[in-house]
Specification:
Length: 200
């Protein structure tokens, strides 16, 4: 499933109108609702307080047999092709996963197996993960970052991880994680603004 783009504001504290940053979330969680998307929601809310953003979400577990049955890019249907292009054309890609057996889920990897090898070159990618405990945070550096290094993407230096104990249901409670999200986005705010405006 791919959600229609929506412009997110942040109430009275929202930034002045301007070119919207095209943010695409690739959600690798099979759960509905999920802690992973609860964490992403906080990321998007924080980002919307900095810049005008237009967001879309790709749920890889909802893309169906047209996606799971494709072995190569030439095999995909027009609908899946449009979804792949949505990710490839983002200004900021948010790669969001639950840790599964020490790595990312298989359908999340399958999605990126179909992405063009050079489509993500120099694209900003924010890495987001959830897991059962703090030891699962290693997936960010040992699995996700190498995946996007292959694509020559620009991964945001500060990645975001939250463990099960940081949530009440799917609501993120831990203020330390909120602070890390703020830090991660503030570090690249100028880059994000440049991508939104098309500045060199």
């Amino acid at each position: 499933m791919t959600t229609a783009p929506s412009v997110i504001g942040a109430g009275p504290a929202a930034p002045a109108a301007g070119p919207a940053l095209r943010v695409v979330v690739v959600n690798g969680s099979p759960s509905r609702p999920s802690k992973t998307m609860g964490l992403v929601d906080v990321v998007l809310e924080t980002l919307a307080g900095m810049l005008p953003v237009e967001t879309s979400r790709i749920d890889v577990y909802a893309l169906g047999e047209e996606f799971t049955g494709a072995v190569e890019r030439d095999d995909v249907t027009p609908g899946v092709e449009a979804t792949l292009r949505l990710a490839e054309n983002a200004d900021l890609l948010i790669a969001a996963i639950p840790v599964y057996r020490g790595s990312y889920p298989g359908l999340f990897k399958h999605f990126f197996d179909l992405v063009d090898q050079y489509a993500l070159a120099n694209k900003l990618v924010l890495l987001v993960a959830t897991g059962g405990g703090e030891h699962h945070a290693l997936v960010l550096e040992h699995a996700l970052r190498p995946l996007f290094a292959f694509f020559q993407a620009l991964t945001v230096p500060v990645a975001i991880f939250a463990s099960a104990g940081d949530f009440d249901g799917t609501i993120l409670l831990n203020p330390r994680i909120h602070g890390r999200i703020q830090l991660a986005l503030t570090d690249v705010k100028d880059l994000l603004h440049a991508r939104a405006t098309g500045a060199p």
